[in-house]
């Protein structure tokens, strides 16, 4: 493929032979892969400064040109840059690269990509890198890779070999598949498995020897074969498949691994990496272009590409390594990415398997199976190889004789041998796969004949007689192959009307009505004539009557196409019905033969939109529709979409879609349409990126689709509803990508979905059904696209569609919605929206009539409800519109209130906090709002109700906390009734404590909270405050466990010291007497503890509290108190304790306290009112 | 004079052979005259000078004495132009349809090598030379030197081609044939009369196909009829077998036919030549199904020899028929089917023997003939 670029194309150093590595493709840009490079480069040509194409082996850094020994104009600059690059490489790896233009360093090669990039696309720096071939590690296959040639000598061992082939291809790379007993098979073995493999071979008594000792070495050898155009093919080059190891840069990777890598890296670094798919290669692989850019425009770009040659395993590896280096090691060298846009073309990585015949060889290979044994018409598997070998040997002999005769210029004899050779193609015994191999072998030989004839007849000898002569062949198959071969020469010599000859050839081929033979014959015709079609516009002066014009070319291909299609379809009806499955598989394998016709049509440059619309498409569609074969229709319709450019699809949508409605009922129309929509949408996006309107305004793309989808739905009442919905999904995607501003279109789609659902009378859709999944997809699309719940509210039908899902479905969508809103911080700003949104989220908010009562994982449930709780914080009206916010909260309250006892503990608290926040806001703007006091009151009432609801739900601790919180909030916001409200809250809390909390630990915890809250409350008058305080003390001493009592009393003591009342105007109470009382009591309780450890611990704590209050200046506490306690611990308690961790802890605790006291004693404070620590006895 | 020559002369004289002579017939313009290949009885081919009807035969007869100096006595010298038909089953009974005699010399003596001019002016040559299985038609010149005991005779065979002008009526052959409910086809050959270098162009349109056809071929059959009355001998020979279709078509397919006749060994059609024999040609369209059953339809074509050679123009495939002609509405002809293994079909050198058909005849082996007006079936047992 690297000889396929349209710059001095085919001027030498390339081969016309399709199987050669240097095949030129028959025409410049005949291969879709090279066209992809072309289109991509042209798209970025003005910013691209460097084009790199990476190849392997040679250690060369090559510049253009390849077609001539002359140097490009900017060779000096090119050389300079190359020298600098190579110096770096030498510095790092010590390798020496040879620099120079390809022709001068290596050999003439015309039409390679770098020549084109420079000469054709005008990129100033274009290089070919031939990577190093020796080195320590990295790019070579490790030398331990060995290839074994194995021969199974009996059935058992052969089966073993087949088993290995089928199941262990991860470690054994079969270069040739095991064919039969006594046939040799080549296997490349991972070094680690070498011993196992040899053991197996010995066990089963298989004959083997090491065929290639060092694979690496062989590859280098075979590399040399590339230079001469007609290099004999080695087994090495022919073997299908590449090694299959994961991508780790120490070994070589296959295509899926590379794609996996590409997708992975694109997903991980979305900001840096973008991947665009450019359609599919002939082998059906995606062809991604990877772009690394930090954004921005006007930057220089570097375009790199690797793997254009088959079997240069290292090149893709290098490219992927480079990608990884740039992206994952971005931090190490940001300048490379920040200043330059990188483009990587990974399309070529699959070229290893590409054959000129553009059909899936490997597919054919896999299609061969035991089923052959059952087939009556063809021979069983074992015989296939024998038959094929026999046929191939005849071909070989006859071809040799043909060539000898040609050398002796005995044309008649040569033709006779050719005819005998071609007679092998008359067989009915071969499977498609074997037939294909035979066909390929014969095609190669026919090339020789053609070349000879061309030489011979270009010098004025008349071809007409020859054209007649070959028609004397009695058998039709050899006759027609020869006729085509001679016909091609006839055309090339320009002796006869090109148009007439083409027409004649394609007509005469009708004589072969056998599907397999006919398909291959016509494929041969198509291949031979690929560059000879009169691809000239009708008004072109060169398009004479006899030369023909593009119409003739189109007619030619179309006729060939429809005949091939008929043959292909006919295959389905031949033979026994029990073989149907096998036949279908074979047909799948052969489909590319038919599809190639369409590819050729698409390659005709002179087909303009008008012609496509009037002739090409209707012709194809007529054939497709009339063949009434689901398999063919589905493939061909997709083929049309893929091979023709997007622009023409836009113009012919009506026609195309109309045809879709007429397809066979088994055809998965939705797949086709989805592909089409997808493609057009991508096109629209690309156009947009180029600054064009996505879709030409005169084409109402969306309407067309939506109408036609309706028609199709009507035309095929039996179509499964999920397919219908998947069509709608693609419609939505289209709307997003091509009409981003028209939100009503999306709604329209949803509406029509609803209608469709009505039609099939589906009330509730099972989430796990196919339809449910599709609906789910449909609904998620707008969610993920808009990333805004609020925008969704503009789609009135969204909710309605949502309602059609069953509970699980709705819940899943709702979760998605919530997550989406949270991720994107979508704020909901009006009450209406709140209602609407929460309606959508209903399955998460309250019980649903259709709810399934299966036990749900409590954790999941909590997770779910936590999401909802977070959601509440998104309810935020405009800063200034507090009333709105209030209304929103009440609305939300109503909805969440319905959630039942299980849900409200999660949802109401955030709501309450939001309400508190709102009250504070009112307070902040009190100057502006006269009614603020009233509103605050209302809010607190609202909160009270909420908490009451929680109480009703038989919760205790949570409402207790909320009550306390409410009291605090009320106390901070000073409005008329806030004291009453606060008191109310506190009293509720106390009531709750008394009535509901019975567990001692909970009691202690609650009491701690209450005490703390009370300490903070400053709005109470003495009248309210005193009873609460004493109640607290009472409750503390009423606790069950002594230590709890003790500690609670300590806490309560604080109330008398630092809490405040309205009368005190914020000053602390400083009731030292009460404090001492509390502490005494606490001390008493502590001494009542029986366990000396606990007692000691409590007393140590008590000491600290005493010290605290003493320090605060409580007159009622004296040094004596402290001394007493210290000595009590020291003398009484500690000695009782055994040595243990506990004791040590207590000692340390006490020690620290003493240390502090000592410090205070020894460094008396200078302030006058500080208490004196003199007299503290510490030792 | 060498010793050997002396001895030879003496011996000849001694044994009394007398004078002998060599006779050569030299035709005027022999160097430039065209020749034609004519098959001999043993299957070989020889090149003969070619003459046409009405052409004059002029030339010289050279008589070379073997022994110069000795005289040759004779009873007269004559030259004859003869056209004769020889039936192999009736050897020795040649039928001369043309016989012209010219006296070259009266009885007398020849002393020197002598040369005589002869001239048959505008000789009628009504038939073409032909060498068949049972019959041979030849023209020749015969010079006879009449002598007392044994005449000296020299014969020279000539090739004669009869040329025809372009036939005025040359309609195409078009016919619908079939076997009820299993196979209906319509075929068309562009002409009914073809010259020997002509190309048969035609097409076959499948109207109904319910059998599994394996392939289809066109055979050119030569039928030589000799004798008359009860003693009629028919000899069929397949001159060419030409596969025109591979595989099984379906309804609506049309298959092109193009057969170049120039490559085959053909003669013009001869009808009732001198009431002795006829040579006729037939195109036999044969369909072979997967059970090796053969269906065929024969159509006679007339072959003629065209005068001047005109550069052939390229023959292109016919435009396929899009609709079958319904002109002859119900004139659906019946196919012949060969129920039993056909051994009579002569095989060409190269074509492998494909018989016998394994399938013995099923009951419906002879299809119902809906209209047998033109049905020709000669391939009988």
Automatic annotation (TrEMBL), chain A:
Keywords: Carboxypeptidase, Cytoplasm, Disulfide bond, Golgi apparatus, Hydrolase, Membrane, Metal-binding, Metalloprotease, Protease, Protein transport, Signal, Transport, Zinc. SMART domains: Zn_pept (SM00631). Residues 1-164, 248-344 form the Peptidase M14 domain. The keyword Cytoplasm applies. Its cofactor is Zn(2+). Its main location: cytoplasm. PANTHER family: VACUOLAR PROTEIN SORTING-ASSOCIATED PROTEIN 35, VACUOLAR SORTING PROTEIN 35. Belongs to the peptidase M14 family. Belongs to the VPS35 family. This is Zinc carboxypeptidase A 1. It comes from Daphnia sinensis.
TrEMBL record, chain B:
GO terms for biological process: intracellular protein transport. The keyword Transport applies. Keywords: Protein transport, Transport. Residues 319-381 are annotated as: Disordered. It holds the Pfam family Vps26. Residues 322-332 have a biased composition (Polar residues). InterPro entries: Arrestin-like_C, Vps26-related. Belongs to the VPS26 family. This is Vacuolar protein sorting-associated protein 26. The gene is EOG090X05H4.
């Amino acid at each position: 493929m690297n000889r396929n670029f349209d710059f001095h194309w085919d001027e030498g150093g390339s081969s016309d032979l399709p199987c050669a590595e240097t095949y030129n493709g028959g025409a410049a840009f005949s291969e879709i892969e090279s066209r992809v490079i072309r289109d991509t480069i042209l798209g970025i040509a003005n910013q691209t400064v460097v084009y790199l194409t990476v190849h392997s082996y040679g250690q060369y850094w090559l510049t253009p040109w390849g077609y001539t020994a002359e140097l490009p104009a900017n060779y000096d600059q090119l050389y300079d840059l190359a020298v600098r690059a190579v110096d770096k490489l030498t510095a790092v790896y010590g390798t020496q690269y040879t620099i120079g233009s390809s022709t001068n360093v290596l050999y003439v090669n015309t039409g390679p990509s770098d020549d084109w990039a420079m000469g054709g696309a005008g990129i100033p720096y274009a290089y070919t890198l031939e990577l190093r071939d020796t080195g320590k590690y990295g790019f070579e296959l490790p030398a331990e890779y060995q290839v074994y040639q194995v021969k199974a000598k009996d059935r058992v061992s052969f089966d073993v070999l087949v088993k290995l082939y089928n199941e262990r291809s991860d470690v054994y790379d079969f270069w040739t598949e095991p064919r039969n007993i006594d046939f040799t098979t080549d296997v490349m073995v991972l070094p680690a498995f070498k011993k196992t493999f040899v053991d197996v071979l010995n066990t089963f008594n298989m004959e083997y020897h090491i065929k290639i000792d060092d694979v690496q070495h062989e590859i280098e050898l075979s590399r040399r074969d590339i230079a001469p155009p007609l290099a004999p093919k080695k087994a090495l080059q022919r073997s299908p498949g590449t090694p299959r190891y994961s991508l780790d840069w120490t070994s070589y990777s296959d295509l899926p691994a590379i794609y996996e890598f590409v997708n992975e890296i694109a997903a991980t670094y979305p900001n840096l990496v973008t991947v665009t798919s450019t359609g599919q290669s002939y082998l059906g692989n995606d062809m991604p272009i990877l772009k690394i850019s930090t954004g921005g425009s006007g930057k220089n770009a570097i375009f790199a590409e690797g793997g254009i040659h088959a079997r240069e395993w290292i090149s893709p590896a290098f490219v992927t390594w480079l990608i990884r280096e740039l992206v994952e090691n971005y931090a190490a060298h940001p300048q490379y990415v920040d200043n330059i846009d990188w483009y990587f073309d990974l399309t070529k990585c699959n070229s290893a398997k590409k054959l000129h015949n553009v059909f899936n060889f490997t597919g054919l290979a896999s299609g061969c199976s035991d089923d052959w044994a059952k087939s009556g018409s063809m021979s069983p598997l074992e015989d296939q190889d024998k038959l094929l070998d026999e046929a191939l040997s005849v071909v070989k002999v006859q071809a040799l004789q043909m060539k000898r005769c040609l050398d002796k210029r005995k044309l008649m004899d040569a033709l006779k041998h050719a005819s005998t050779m071609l007679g092998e193609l008359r067989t009915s015994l071969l499977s498609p796969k074997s037939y294909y191999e035979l066909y390929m072998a014969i095609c190669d030989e026919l090339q020789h004949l053609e070349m000879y004839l061309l030489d011979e007849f270009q010098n004025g000898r008349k071809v007409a007689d020859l054209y007649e002569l070959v028609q004397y062949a009695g058998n039709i198959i050899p006759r027609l192959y020869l006729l085509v071969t001679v016909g091609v020469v006839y055309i090339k010599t320009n002796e006869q009307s090109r148009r007439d000859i083409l027409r004649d050839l394609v007509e005469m081929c009708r004589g072969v009505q056998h599907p397999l033979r006919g398909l291959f014959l016509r494929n041969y015709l198509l291949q031979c004539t690929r560059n000879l079609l009169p691809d000239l516009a009708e008004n072109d002066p060169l398009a004479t009557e006899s030369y023909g014009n593009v119409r003739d070319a189109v007619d030619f291909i179309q006729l060939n196409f429809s005949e091939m299609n008929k043959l292909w379809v006919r295959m389905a009806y031949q033979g026994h019905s029990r073989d149907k499955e096998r036949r279908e598989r074979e047909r799948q394998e052969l489909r590319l033969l038919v599809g190639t016709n369409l590819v050729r049509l698409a390659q005709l440059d002179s087909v303009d939109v008008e012609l496509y619309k009037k002739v090409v498409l209707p012709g194809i569609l007529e054939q497709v529709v009339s063949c009434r074969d689901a398999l063919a229709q589905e493939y061909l319709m997709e083929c049309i979409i893929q091979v023709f450019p997007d622009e023409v699809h836009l113009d012919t949508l009506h026609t195309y879609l109309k045809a879709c409605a007429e397809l066979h009922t088994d055809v998965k129309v939705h797949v086709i349409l989805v592909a089409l929509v997808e493609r057009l949408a991508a096109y629209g996006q690309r156009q947009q990126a180029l600054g064009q309107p996505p879709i030409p305004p005169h084409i109402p793309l969306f309407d067309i689709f939506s109408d036609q989808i309706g028609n199709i739905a009507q035309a095929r009442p039996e179509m499964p509803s999920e397919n219908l919905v998947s069509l709608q999904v693609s419609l939505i995607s289209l709307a997003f990508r091509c009409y981003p501003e028209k939100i009503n279109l999306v709604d329209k789609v949803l509406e029509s979905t609803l209608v469709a659902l009505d039609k099939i009378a589906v009330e509730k859709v099972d989430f796990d059904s196919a339809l449910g999944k599709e609906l789910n997809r449909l609904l998620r699309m707008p969610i993920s696209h808009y990333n805004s719940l609020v925008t969704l509210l503009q789609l009135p039908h969204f909710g309605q569609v949502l309602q059609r899902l069953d509970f699980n479905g709705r819940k899943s969508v709702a979760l998605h919605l919530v997550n989406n809103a949270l991720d994107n911080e979508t704020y909901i700003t009006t009450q209406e929206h709140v209602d609407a949104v929460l309606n959508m989220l209903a399955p998460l908010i309250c019980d649903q009539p259709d709810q399934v009562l299966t036990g749900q994982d409590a954790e999941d449930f909590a997770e779910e409800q936590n999401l909802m709780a977070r959601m509440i914080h998104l309810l935020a009206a405009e800063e200034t519109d507090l009333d709105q916010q209030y209304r929103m909260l009440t609305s939300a309250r109503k909805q969440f209130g319905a959630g039942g006892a299980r849900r409200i503990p999660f949802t109401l608290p955030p709501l309450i906090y939001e309400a508190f926040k709102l009250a504070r806001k009112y307070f902040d703007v009190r100057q502006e709002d006269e009614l603020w006091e009233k509103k605050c009151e209302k809010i607190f009432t609202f909160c009270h109700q909420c908490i009451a609801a929680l109480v009703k739900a038989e919760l205790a601790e949570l409402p207790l906390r909320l009550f306390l919180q409410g009291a605090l909030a009320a106390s901070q916001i000073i409005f008329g009734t806030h004291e009453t409200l606060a008191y109310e809250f506190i009293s509720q809390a106390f009531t709750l404590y008394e009535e509901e909390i019975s567990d001692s630990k909970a009691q202690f915890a609650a009491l701690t909270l209450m005490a703390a809250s009370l300490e903070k409350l400053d709005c109470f008058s003495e009248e309210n405050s005193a009873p609460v305080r004493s109640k607290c003390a009472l409750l503390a001493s009423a606790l069950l466990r002594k230590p709890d009592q003790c500690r609670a009393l300590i806490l309560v003591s604080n109330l008398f010291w630092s809490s405040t009342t309205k009368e005190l105007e914020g000053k602390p109470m400083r009731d030292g007497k009460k404090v001492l009382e509390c502490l005494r009591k606490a001390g008493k309780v502590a001494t009542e503890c029986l366990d000396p450890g606990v007692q000691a611990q409590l007393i140590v704590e008590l000491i600290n509290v005493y010290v605290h209050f003493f320090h605060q200046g409580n007159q009622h506490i004296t040094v004596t108190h402290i001394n007493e306690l210290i000595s009590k611990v020291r003398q009484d308690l500690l000695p009782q304790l055994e040595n243990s961790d506990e004791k040590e802890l207590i000692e340390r605790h006490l020690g620290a306290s003493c240390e502090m006291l000592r410090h205070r004693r020894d460094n008396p404070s200078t302030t006058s009112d500080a208490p004196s620590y003199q007299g503290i006895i510490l030792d | 004079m060498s010793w050997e020559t002396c001895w030879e002369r003496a011996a000849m004289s001694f044994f009394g052979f007398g004078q002998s002579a060599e006779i050569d017939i030299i035709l005027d313009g022999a160097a430039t005259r065209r020749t034609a290949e004519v098959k001999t009885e043993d299957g070989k081919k020889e090149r003969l000078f070619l003459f046409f009807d009405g052409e004059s035969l002029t030339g010289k007869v050279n008589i070379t004495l073997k022994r110069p100096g000795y005289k040759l006595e004779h009873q007269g010298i004559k030259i004859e132009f003869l056209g004769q038909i020889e039936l192999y089953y009736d050897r020795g009974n040649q039928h001369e349809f043309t016989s012209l005699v010219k006296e070259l010399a009266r009885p007398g003596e020849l002393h020197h090598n002598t040369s005589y001019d002869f001239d048959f002016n505008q000789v009628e040559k009504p038939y073409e030379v032909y060498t068949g299985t049972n019959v041979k038609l030849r023209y020749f010149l015969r010079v006879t030197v009449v002598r007392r005991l044994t005449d000296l005779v020299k014969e020279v065979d000539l090739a004669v081609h009869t040329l025809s002008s372009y036939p005025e009526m040359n309609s195409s052959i078009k016919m619908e044939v079939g076997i009820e409910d299993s196979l209906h086809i319509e075929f068309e050959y562009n002409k009914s009369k073809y010259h020997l270098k002509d190309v048969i162009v035609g097409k076959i349109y499948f109207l109904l196909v319910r059998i599994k056809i394996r392939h289809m071929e066109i055979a050119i059959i030569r039928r030589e009829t000799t004798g008359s009355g009860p003693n009629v001998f028919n000899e069929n020979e397949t001159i060419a077998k030409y596969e025109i279709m591979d595989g099984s078509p379906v309804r609506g397919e049309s298959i092109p036919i193009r057969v170049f006749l120039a490559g085959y060994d053909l003669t013009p059609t001869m009808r009732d030549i001198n009431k002795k024999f006829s040579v006729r040609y037939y195109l036999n369209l044969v369909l072979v199904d997967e059970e090796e059953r053969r269906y065929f339809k024969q159509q006679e074509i007339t072959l003629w020899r065209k005068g001047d050679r005109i550069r052939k123009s390229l023959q292109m495939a016919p435009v396929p028929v899009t609709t079958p002609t319904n002109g002859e509405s119900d004139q659906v002809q019946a196919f012949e089917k060969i129920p039993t293994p056909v051994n009579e079909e002569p095989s060409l050198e190269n074509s492998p023997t494909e018989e016998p058909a394994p399938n013995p005849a099923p009951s419906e082996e002879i299809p119902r003939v809906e209209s047998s007006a033109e049905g020709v079936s000669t391939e009988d047992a």
